[in-house]
Amino acid sequence: AEMIIRIYYAILDKNTYLRANLKENKAVIVFPIEKNVSDSDGATKTIVELVELFVSENTRIIHVLVDSNNAWMFKKSRSHAIDADLEILAVVQESQDEHSSTIVEQLLLNTEGANPQTFYPQKIIGWTWGQLQQKTTELSLAQNLRCNLLAIVKQSIPDSCPRQNTIIEKGDALSFIAYE
Predict the structure, then answer these.
(1) Which one, of 120, 170, 178, lies nearest residue 144 by Cα?
(2) DSSP string for 128-155
(3) For range 82-98, the mean pLDDT
(4) Is the pTM of the predicted complex or chain greater than 0.70?
(5) Residue 149 CB: number of other CB atoms within 10 A?
């Protein structure tokens, strides 16, 4: 579904999660109860475990981690951590470029704009990033599609601005933004 649900109260009440209809969401983001308090990660862990009971297998779960020393609590969780300090980075980036945070927010919300999609290529192994950009542009124009390359992920390290001569290798992931 294309909605954002905020759960402020009754985090231990089963009806809270049932009313949220979490199975219908592509992603669920769990924010800490208190932003700058390390112990909030314990509550976040509890909420993540409860969310996992009510989402589908395809639902992505993301949690904001206040203290990286608490990452161990989430080792067996389906949830992916985002460092709480990224919020500060967003503010810093916004001060350098007035549109950055709204662009990133649009990419992450799934409610407006294009959505990121990542896949593992098979037929284009050996191509360069520049060749892929050119072919993507040609196909977009010929088929009247709205899509752009976003990043390449090599050995689990994302690169949102690879060199044109970067070779696409087996095991690399490619991220596009596109309208479905």
Answers:
(1) 178
(2) BHHHHHHHHHHHHHHHT--EEEEEEEET
(3) 62
(4) no
(5) 16
